[in-house]
Amino acid sequence: MEQEKNISSKIHSTVPVIGTDNIKKSIIYYTKVLGFLSDFEYGNPVVYAGVKSGDAEIYFSYDPEIVNLIKDKKISPEIFIWLSDADNLFKEHVKNGAEIIEPISDRPWGARQYVVKDINGYHLKFAQPL
């Protein structure tokens, strides 16, 4: 138990990795539609990349098999994203053409939240603490 406490006290952040069959297209979507900034690209052709917004980061990995599995099995991996102004970001996402699958509303778990389905099939849950 003591070892677990020491290890976990050193963790300071996590970065979700999204499998995609087109990294360039994913970067364009995340920057133009969702408002992230491009952070890095690796490989030629690009096989790994990242975007960021504030302290939040999301990475992309070239993995067409994951994308096909998500589509074929109709699964929806989720990424929960905390933010400070859900209403304004929601309006931006709607204006930019994001696929809103759950509209903004106050949720019983203490969050003002909405859900976007990204171009890879992932559900992005944008939420502001109430």
Automatic annotation (TrEMBL):
Q: What are the coiled-coil residue ranges?
A: none
VOC domain location, by residue? Answer: 10-129
What SUPFAM superfamilies does the database record attribute to this sequence?
Glyoxalase/Bleomycin resistance protein/Dihydroxybiphenyl dioxygenase (SSF54593)
Q: Which InterPro entries match?
A: Glyas_Bleomycin-R_OHBP_Dase, Glyas_Fos-R_dOase_dom, VOC_core
Give the highest taxon in the source lineage: Bacteria
Q: What Pfam families is this protein classified in?
A: Glyoxalase
What is the name of this protein? VOC domain-containing protein
